[in-house]
Design goal:
By secondary structure, the chain is α+β, with helices and mostly antiparallel strands. It is built from 6 helices and 5 strands; from the N terminus they run E-H-E-E-E-E-H-H-H-H-H. The chain folds into 2 domains: 120 residues, no CATH class; 51 residues.
Amino acid sequence: MSDENIEFSEENLLPYPSNEVTNSDLFSGKIFSSWEECDSFFDGWSKKNGFHIKKDRVLREEGNIRRRTYLCVHGGSYESKSKKDTSTKKTKCPFLVNVSCPKTKNPSSNVVVNKLINEHNHSLSVEMITFEEQKKFTTEMMEDIKFLTSHCKFGATAQRKFLEGKYPSQPIYSKDLYAAIQKFRPTSKSLLNDAALMSN
């Protein structure tokens, strides 16, 4: 569907209840009032349909986003830089959505879906998405991990005990905790910079 063939009016705007996003809510020609609304819709819609979505190409003009492509996280192909047999998320999934904000005949700067390939070459799992969302660390937990790592120099075992005591209803998975700790662990470069500052 070409951008130029779409007339924008208040009747075209399709409000959707955020807790009832379904597969039928996405179609070529769907209109959003802003890029924020569009991003929010795709985030919720993809999770309710059992996959994660990512932003791919973007075209800007004079600082404004004019076009954006959304892909499934499994879209694209993976090229290994090692000889190891590694599994990867990328399976060349064909799912694709092109969205644009036309300059002409669009006084409200609405955003429209103009291409949709709603196909996947892998299984979709709402349960897996729900599980991934539930095990994410909250902002408060990440602040605790940052403090315990950079200031207290606690290792994973001590941090796990602390977090399980403070957040008893939140599952703590070792792999996720190790990854979070690594984000805040000082690198050799930052340690050298700190040492240089202290010697001055």
